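I'm stuck. Protein, please.
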Amino acid sequence: MSNFIQGIPRPPQPQAPVLGSSKFFAVIIPVVQIAIGSVYLHDCPVQRLIPIYLIVSGVFGMLLAVLSCLPCAQEPKDGTSNRLSCVCMAWNSLTAFFLFCWFIAGNVWIYSIYEPNYNQTATDAGPYCNRTLYLFAFWITTLAYILLGLALFCGCCVLFCFFLCGRADPDDGV
């Protein structure tokens, strides 16, 4: 079994410009999260944790993106692992786990007040939430679900194609 796993070729590494541009785009959303959360920090009394959710998500998302660029985060080409890469992998795993838990908490905070009062001056409507802040948080969270659904759909399609194309003929003896 281990010979089989060792015989699987490694996927080609993306070229530096592709890798750099993907990291750049992976950092854009956390920067915008931090900016919007900071600008509207006190503009959502109905759920004061939404701007904090955006700031913390942005900081940890950027931290995860930056840490994945460090040489200790890459696996050595010879397949061995050193102590620093194990520490880096553990830290990245803990950060990703925290982001997952924080994402669930953010879902509760964002979706529990759907659709809030956006009017700050209305006294009879109760607490409000800034429209830009709330809609950004709402659509970033919803976009995560859309991308997850798309990834699951594409993964199922790929598996289905592998299943159809990978069938062995009965006379192959496999």
Remarks:
- The two ends are 17 Å apart (CA to CA).
- Residues 17-117+127-164 form one domain.
